[in-house]
Specification:
single chain, mainly alpha
C-alpha cells in the first residue's frame, strides 16, 4: 500500500513496531469510556455546543422570517462543525484521564479543549484538506490518508504538537495498522450515521406531523433540529472518544508509554 504522505517518520522507533490496533479492545473501551462518563461527557458536549444550540433555540422561538430562521440554522450547523473540533480536543484529555483510572473533571476537560482549540482546528483543517485531495484522486487514497491522520488531534492535544508534527506522529503511530484503524472508523461511522439519520428523521418528522401536513415554518424545523442535536451529543462524544482510545492504545501497546506520562503535561 503506497504512502500518500511523507511527513518524516515511517516506523515507530521504540516499543513494539509490529503491534496492530486491537479492534475489539478499542471498540469496547470506546463504548465503555463513553457510557461510564455519559453524564460528564454529555455536559462537556452540551457546554461546547451551547453556542450552536442557542442559535437553533433562537431560530425556533424568535418571531423572524423563514429566510432568517434558515440562515440561523445554516450558521448553527457550520458553527457546530467547528465546535466539534473543540469537543474532540476536550475528550482526548478526558478519555485518557478515565483510562488511567481517574474521573475527568468537567471544567478541566472543557478547559483543555478550549486551550487546544486553535491547534486542533489547524490540524483538523490540514488533515481534512489532505483527505479531500485523496478522495478526489480516487477515493481509496483519501481513505488511506484519513487512517494515517486519525490520531492527529489527540497528538495535538496530549503532546501539544504543531500541525506538521501532529500529522507526522499520527502517520508514525498508525503505520502498519491502518486496516484496524479503518475497521474501527467503519463500525463507529456506520453506527453514528445510522443513529443520526433516525434521530433527525424522527425529530423533523414529528415536527411535520404536528404541523398537520401543511407547510412547516422554518422555526419548527429549527426546533426539530435542536431536539435532534441534543439527542446526538452522546454519539458525538463516542466518535470523538474513539480516536482518543485509539491513540491511547497505540501509545501504550506500540510505544510502551507509561499511562501517567500521557497527560503529565496538564499537571
Amino acid at each position: 500500500m503506497p504512502e500518500m504522505l511523507n511527513l518524516g517518520l515511517a516506523e515507530p522507533a521504540t516499543g513494539n513496531p509490529g503491534y496492530e490496533l486491537d479492534l475489539g479492545r478499542v471498540l469496547r473501551q470506546s463504548f465503555s469510556v463513553t457510557w461510564s462518563n455519559l453524564l460528564p461527557f454529555g455536559l462537556v458536549g452540551l457546554a461546547v455546543y451551547s453556542p450552536a444550540l442557542l442559535l437553533l433555540g433562537l431560530a425556533a422561538v424568535l418571531p423572524v422570517s423563514d429566510d432568517v430562521a434558515r440562515i440561523m440554522m445554516t450558521t448553527s450547523d457550520l458553527l457546530g462543525r467547528l465546535l466539534g473540533l473543540v469537543l474532540a480536543g476536550a475528550l482526548a484529555y478526558g478519555v485518557i484521564e478515565n483510562l488511567r483510572g481517574r474521573r475527568p473533571a468537567i471544567g478541566q476537560t472543557v478547559g483543555v479543549g478550549l486551550r487546544s482549540g486553535v491547534r486542533v482546528f489547524l490540524v483538523s483543517l490540514v488533515s481534512g484538506i489532505a483527505t479531500v485531495v485523496g478522495l478526489v484522486l480516487c477515493i481509496v487514497p483519501g481513505v488511506i490518508v484519513y487512517c494515517m491522520l486519525w490520531v492527529a488531534v489527540p497528538v495535538a492535544v496530549v503532546e501539544q504538537a504543531g500541525v506538521m508534527e501532529a500529522m507526522d506522529r499520527s502517520q508514525n503511530l498508525t503505520a502498519g495498522t491502518r486496516l484496524g484503524v479503518f475497521a474501527v472508523n467503519l463500525v463507529i461511522g456506520v453506527l453514528v450515521g445510522a443513529c443520526g439519520f433516525m434521530v433527525y428523521a424522527l425529530a423533523i418528522g414529528g415536527v411535520m406531523i404536528l404541523g398537520g401536513g401543511e407547510a412547516v415554518p422554518a422555526s419548527r424545523l429549527a426546533a426539530g433540529q435542536l431536539a435532534g442535536s441534543l439527542l446526538l451529543i452522546p454519539l458525538e462524544c463516542l466518535q470523538a472518544a474513539s480516536a482518543a482510545v485509539g491513540y491511547y492504545d497505540l501509545r501504550v501497546h506500540r510505544e510502551g508509554a507509561e499511562v501517567d506520562e500521557l497527560v503529565s503535561v496538564f499537571e
